[in-house]
Amino acid sequence: MTREPLIAPNRRTETRHATPGNACNHFMKYGMTCDDFDRLRTRADGRCELCETPEEKTRRGTLVIDHFQGAGLFFVRGLICDRCNSVMSRHDRKAAWGPSSLPWAEKARAYHLASFERPTPEEFEQAEQYIASRRPYAVKDRILPKVKRPKVPHIRMDRPLKEIATKLRRNLGADEMAQLIELLTKPK
Ligand SMILES: [Zn+2]
Ligand SMILES: [Zn+2]
User: Fold this and answer.
1) Rounded distance from Cα 77 to ligand 1 centre (Å)
2) Which of 6, 66, 138, 145 has its CA 20 to 30 A from that of 17?
3) Angle ∠(75,142,97) on CA atoms, nearest 5
4) How far is the CA of 88 from the centre of ligand 2 (A)?
């Protein structure tokens, strides 16, 4: 329960087993055996364990392993979607609740208490105290985890517009595309 992740999360391969001969991400990062991981997937049953969105309907089309870390504790809580992952960072007071996350506070709590790797009541209490001790969120307080940043896509402006558009489409989410279109079409 006190182990540290060995490598930074890689969301693409996080929620599946590795190809033969390679170590699984769930083991390298969370110390979960393949059996544990299969049990977790069975428990999630193809849905985010917090909002119950089917995996294929989530924004990334994949669920992520969520864990609690702090006060020397480290335990896997479950398999959730990206959106709920940010809800859980509010629960853990790594970020402030907002209008869209706050309605999930109660469910986030219940999900936390039903953590897959069941901490002892004492450990839960320790986690509680740790969460409660965190100062109200401010951007400058944010502890940035040491993760390898994904490569920033480079878009060359000296290429045909069609190619630029393809690259933008590939690298931006639907919301960002909409915002970009709005910015481009808005009179100055
Ligand atoms: Zn595995
Ligand atoms: Zn969710």
Assistant:
1) 17
2) 145
3) 75
4) 10
